[in-house]
UniProtKB/TrEMBL annotation:
Gene designation: ecfT
Protein name listed in UniProt: Energy-coupling factor transporter transmembrane protein EcfT
Lineage: Bacteria, Bacillati, Actinomycetota, Actinomycetes, Mycobacteriales
ATP-binding recorded as keyword: no
Major subcellular location class: membrane
Organism of this sequence: Mycolicibacterium vanbaalenii (Mycobacterium vanbaalenii)
Keywords: Cell membrane, Membrane, Transmembrane, Transmembrane helix
Membrane topology value: Multi-pass membrane protein
InterPro entries: ABC/ECF_trnsptr_transmembrane (IPR003339), ECF_transporter_component (IPR051611)
Nuclease among keywords: no
Amino acid sequence: MTAPSGAPPDSDAGRALNPVAKLLTALVIAAALVLSVDWVSALTALVLELVLILVLGVRLRTLLFRGALIVVAAGLTAVTILLYGQPSGTVYWHFLLVNVSDGSITLAVATFLRVLAIALPSVFLFVDVQPTELADGLGQTLRLPARFVLGALAGMRLVGLLNQDWQYLGHARRARGIGDDGRIRRFAGQAFALLVFAVRRGSKLATAMEARGFGARTDRTWARPSVFGVREVALVLAGVGVAATAITVAVLAGSWNFIGTR
């Protein structure tokens, strides 16, 4: 969703959706889908999620690229269920612990669709979310403790440095002549060095944040206001609608299979 030309950044048309609304939407849909293992509710939710994602303006290229990764992950999960799921009905192939039957095929299809339906909103709703925006929303909208929010934000911001640190450590070890023998030995030694480096950096960051008053238990102010308005409420209600529709369709179709009854 893009802002109209000339719209101020703090106006309703000029700001992005609050990350808290996206988080709540993903949680509502996921909570509804984990209640049952059936393909009808998963397929219904998946179709409605695709419509919602397109309405939110996710680019087609991003949709195809990240969607392909989700499909691969869901496919690997479905293959595992297909081969090692509990057999029922007609058995088509049996080898040692592998049983491909009517029951395992049905469960594999349901699992594939369910993984897609749960992962899709969790990935695409957070395509353009910045860690700082999410921290502002968690602290101001959900009223989570500022000490926890700011600590998590600092940790998330440092994750991006791990790849750079790994490269620098590799160059330094090769320059000293200790990184040329044995890939496994080199990887283990470099990983341990990276762990030590990350712990030291985290300790220094924690000390610096305490010195600047980030650990104070009094109420703090926030530099950027986190607004939870009509659009955010509409997004959460859309998530509730997706979840409710998926459950209703599955119940009417007679495929609803509550996990507590398995």
